[in-house]
Design brief:
By secondary structure, this protein is α+β, with helices and mostly antiparallel strands. Helix content is 44%, strand content 17%.
Amino acid sequence: MNLKDSATRVAVLRVLRDTVNAAYEAERRTILDGLRAARAELALKSIRATLPDHTPIATITLIDPQPVVMVADEDAFIAWVAANHPGEVETLVRVRPGWQREFLTHLAALDPVADPHTGEVIPGLTAVPAPAPRSFSLRLLPGGPEEVTRAWRSGRLDLRRLLALDGGET
């Protein structure tokens, strides 16, 4: 292959890559919206992806964010930590960030936020509910990529229908 042919190939591959990436991102949004709706209506969290001949190739699963505890009132939290864990408060009157991160991860994300050992409500903290899922995982099954390649090469998978390069019509 000469340099001119390589230049043409790289330009075409770039256009195809950009088109595939745009289609992939649009389809990700569609899947995420669909999984969110299925979760709300049917308590469904995962879906199996199959080729047209029903050969399974992947599992797509919603990733559930976890609720977290965050500092809502810095001064109240600092006062509580100073009274209950004085070695963890720095002279500049703040909770050491590393300790705060570690401490917050061990608290139940329930309002009011309480010390798990004493049951005492910890001033300055609030529980933040988990947001709606913003992503999902796609795990290709063992042999899935090879099945896709075989289906593509044999013509069982019509990429023209799967990916309309002109933006809509096949």
